[in-house]
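Re: the request from the purification team.
They wanted to know what the chain is likely to look like in 3D before they choose a buffer screen. I agreed to run a prediction and write the result into the notebook, where they can find it.
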Amino acid sequence: MKRILNTLYVTTQGAYLRKEGESVLVQIEKETKLRLPLLSLSSIVSFGNVLCSPFLLGSCAKHGISVSMLSENGHYLGHFNGPASGNVLLRRTQYRWADDPEKTDAAVRSFLSGKVANARQVLLRTLREKPESDALISAVGHLKGTLQRLQVDQLSTDNMRGMEGDAAKVYFGVFNELIAVDDADFVFGGRSRRPPMDRVNALLSFVYTLLYHDVKGALESVGLDSAVGFLHRDRPGRHGLALDLMEEMRTFWADRLALTLINRQQLSGKDFDVSASGSVLLNEKGRKTVLVAWQKRKQDEITHPFTYERMVLGLLPFLQAQLLARFIRGDLDAYPPFFWR
C-alpha cells in the first residue's frame, strides 16, 4: 500500500525554494525558514510569487515529486512533473475508451453514482439535526430518485450530464441549511466560480483546487492520463479525468471541511478579501488556516467499502485511481466509486 507523504504548501510571497543535499530549503529574504527531506514529500504547491531553482525542479523530477503552481488566490496555473510513469498500454486503452460511447457511459455512471450518493449522505447528516426542514427532505428525495435512475436506467452520457447538473442545483439550493452559524459573512448565494462572489464560494473553490491537485497526482502515479476524461471531455489546459474522479469526493471531503471551518468559526470574514468588483478571495491568513485543516483532515481514518481496507483519507485518491486503472485494464467489471457512510 502506498505510504502517505507530505505536501509542502508555500504561500509566503517572495519565497525561494532551492535544493541543498537531499533536502528542499524554503528561504525568505535569503533566510532559511524551513528544511525538509525530499524523500518525505509527494508534492510541492506554491501560491503566487514563489520561485523554485532549476536544480530543485530536476531533483523533484528524479524523485517523482510533482510541483504545482497556483495564483496567490488559489487558481490552478500549471504543474511540473518528471517522465510519465506507468504502462503505456494502459494509457492507450484509456484513450480508446474515451472515444467509445459504451465504455464512456459505464464510467460516467459510476462517477455520478458516487457523487449523488455522497451528496445525499451529506444532506442526511444535517437532516438528522433539522428533521423539520422541508427543503432538506425534498432535496434528499430528489437525489434518491436521481441515484435510482443512474443505477437502473440505461442512460447516455449526455442524459447523465443533464441529471448531474440538476442534482447539483438541488444540492446547492439547500447548502445554506448546512451552515449552522448565524453570520452575515457566511451566507451562500448560489454557486459562483470565476470569480467567487461570496465567502462560502471562495472557500469552496479553494478546497476544490486542493482536491483537484491531489487527485491529478494520484491518477498520474498509476499511469493514467489525467487530461483525458469521460464526464469532462477534452479541453486544452483542463485535466478532465481528475475532474471526473474528484466528483465523488467533493461533498464528503471538500464541502464538509469547508462547512466545519465555518460552523466551528475557525474562519471569519476577516480571512477574506473583497475586491471593488465584488469578487471574494481568501487572504494569506485564511489560506494558511484552510491548509492546516486540509492536511489534518487527510489523516482521518476511514474503511473503504469495496476493499474493506482501513486507511487514512489522504490515500483515498490513490486507491480510487488504482481501482479505475484496474477497470480500464479489464480486471474489474465496473469502476467502484467510494460511497461515504
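For the purification team: The longest helix spans residues 101-129.
Please add any questions underneath this entry.
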